[in-house]
Each structure stands twice: as C-alpha cells, then as structure tokens.
Amino acid sequence: MTYARPVQECNAGPDLAGEMAAALAAASIVFRDHAAYSRRLVRGAATVYKFARDGGKRSPYSRGNEYIEYYYNSTGYWDEYMWSAAWMYYATGNNSYISFATDPRLPKNAKAFFGILDFSVLSWDNKLPGATLLLSRLRMFLNPGYPYEESLRGYHNITGVNMCMYFPRFGVFNFTRGGLAQFNHGDGQPLQYAVANSFLAALYADYMESVNVPGWYCGPNFMTLNDLRSLAKSQLNYILGDNPRKMSYVVGYGKRYPRRLHHRGASTPNNGVRYSCTGGNKWRDAKGKDPHVLTGAMVGGPDKHDKFKDARISYAQNEPTLVGNAGLVAALVAITSSGRGLGVRAVDKNTMFTAVPPMFPAAPPPPATWKP
C-alpha cells in the first residue's frame, strides 16, 4: 500500500483507552521475564488508563466519527472500565484498581447483573463476560472478603449464569443444525463469537479444576467441567471441518477451505503494479481463487443454516479478522492438553492474587476518589 492512511487523533474515548490499558497491562505480565520492557508496558497502561478515567473525556471514541461509527460503533465504556481495572490490578498489585473494579456502583453502571442477553457474549464491543470471569478468578483463588466480596460474589454468580446460557440444552441461544452457536443471533461473522466464548468456557473449567470444584448448577442441572470443555471443543471441531459442508473455515487447514477471501493481501497478485485504494477493487470483484494462501486465517463463517458462499464480495462470511483469529488461537490453546491450565498458571507465577504493594512503583496509581 502506497496510498495515504491518515491517523486520527482521539480527544475522548474511555472505551478505546480502557481496552488499550487492558492490553498493555496483560502484555506486561507476559513479558515479566524482560523487566525493563514489562515496566514500560505498565507505564503505558497507566497513562492510557488515566486518560480513560478522565471525567472530561467520557464520550465513546466512535461517536460522531464518520470513519468509525458505521463499522466499529462502541455501545459503551463501563465494561472497559471493569476490564481495564482488573488487568491493571493483576499487572501492578495496586489495591486502588481492585477497589474501583469492585465498587458496587461499577457493575450497576455497566449493567453487569441485569441479565441482558447480549452482555453474556464476549466480543470486541462487550468485555463484560471476560471481566467478570477475570474477577471471579480472584474470588475463587484468594477470596479476599470485605470490602470486595459483594461485587466479587456478583461477578462469580453472573459468570456461572453466562456459562449456563452457552449450552444448547437450555435454549437461550440458537444453534445451527450442524451445531454452531449463534451468539450473534444469526448475523455475519458468527465464528469470532463462537471461538471467543469457547475460550471463556474452557478457561472457567480450568479455574474450577484448580480449586477442586467439579462443576456448578444451572438451575437444577449440575454441569461438569467436561461439559464446558466439550462445548468448547464442539465449536472448534465445527470450524475445523466437522460440519454439514465438511469444510474447514481455517485457511490452509484440511483439504477443503475458503479460497476467495475478502482480504487485500490474499487476493491481490504480486504483479509489480501498485494499486490505489479503489484500484484493488478489480481483484475484490474477481471470481478466481486467491493468488496467495493466507494460511491460518479463520474466515467469518457460514450463515444460520450452515450455508457458506466462497465469494470475495461476501465479507460477512469470507473476511478474516484480527479479533476472530485472536479468539481462535486462545480457544485452541485452552482446549489442548498442552495448553490446559496455562490460563491458571500465567499470573500465579508472580503471586498476583495477594494484596501486595505495586510491583512496579513507577506506574502512577489511579485517582483516589471514585468518579461515577
């Protein structure tokens, strides 16, 4: 690409900044063996977290932005507040973060306990299920008690309810005849939602196994850890070829997979021609197979009837995304024998479930007073 890709400056965006803080904080845990880089990540996380919490910058980043609102409209930021505060606590050990994450006013503003169906589904726009699971982990592993218990108990309870909703037997979400969960109600790109929530299911099973809990109740029905893992595996097996079309929706995996991706790099030939932004449309609209195999890319997926059109113009079915592949990798790791339990051990290595002073004092703490 040689044409301009302008950068926009964001003067408000607690949702965007909160997500950035969460990502940087989580990455700082991954890179703890590289102390200087880890500290740099924490400082960056603290900087954007402070921006997110600024009372004068409380409008969603997409609001009124013609380039973003139509495609990536953000429906709120309270979930990102909860998500980022939890990760900031795990990264720093600073109790002010967990105090904010467990203040009863936060789940109320986030509507975390309102039983809203779509809030049970982890997605790029909704972090609540991930945040409540992350905070449930704190209660399950440490059970810190007062003053955190009220909210932590609520987070733990709603996590169990969310997991119950995922099972086809309870009829909360529709499933295709082939077995694919319709967590986004039959809209396009169903696979990214299936993998993200399969990852949560497998991770919750790991958490319970680590504290010797064999399962939990969905009403009168006792659900086991194997039930959760089987649910996750069923979705991944569908994606990898165990479906009515006997087709893998991961490019390069198996004998039959999508060949006409809604993706510039895969569809534009390396013929020495430099195309403008719209100049590549001739390849988008072409009928032939991709000249480049985008190995490992998961596409959007089939429709609610298990039907799939391998056409480049069909972005709802044939577009690979970063959010989709992130969930795919996470879910695959979580259900394999080599990855099982990794989600439990990753943070425990540094005993971040105890009330310790900040590991990295250079990271500035959040404001001492809670702002509604």
From TrEMBL:
<feature type="active site">
    <location>
        <position position="310"/>
    </location>
</feature>
<dbReference type="InterPro" id="IPR012341">
    <property type="entry name" value="6hp_glycosidase-like_sf"/>
</dbReference>
<feature type="active site">
    <location>
        <position position="319"/>
    </location>
</feature>
<comment type="similarity">
    <text>Belongs to the glycosyl hydrolase 9 (cellulase E) family.</text>
</comment>
<keyword id="KW-0378">Hydrolase</keyword>
<dbReference type="InterPro" id="IPR008928">
    <property type="entry name" value="6-hairpin_glycosidase_sf"/>
</dbReference>
<dbReference type="InterPro" id="IPR033126">
    <property type="entry name" value="Glyco_hydro_9_Asp/Glu_AS"/>
</dbReference>
<dbReference type="InterPro" id="IPR001701">
    <property type="entry name" value="Glyco_hydro_9"/>
</dbReference>
<keyword id="KW-0136">Cellulose degradation</keyword>
<feature type="active site">
    <location>
        <position position="262"/>
    </location>
</feature>
<keyword id="KW-0326">Glycosidase</keyword>
<keyword id="KW-0624">Polysaccharide degradation</keyword>
<feature type="domain" description="Glycoside hydrolase family 9">
    <location>
        <begin position="1"/>
        <end position="332"/>
    </location>
</feature>
<dbReference type="GO" id="GO:0008810">
    <property type="term" value="F:cellulase activity"/>
</dbReference>
<keyword id="KW-0119">Carbohydrate metabolism</keyword>
<dbReference type="Pfam" id="PF00759">
    <property type="entry name" value="Glyco_hydro_9"/>
</dbReference>
<protein>
    <recommendedName>
        <fullName>Endoglucanase</fullName>
        <ecNumber>3.2.1.4</ecNumber>
    </recommendedName>
</protein>
<dbReference type="InterPro" id="IPR018221">
    <property type="entry name" value="Glyco_hydro_9_His_AS"/>
</dbReference>
<dbReference type="GO" id="GO:0030245">
    <property type="term" value="P:cellulose catabolic process"/>
</dbReference>
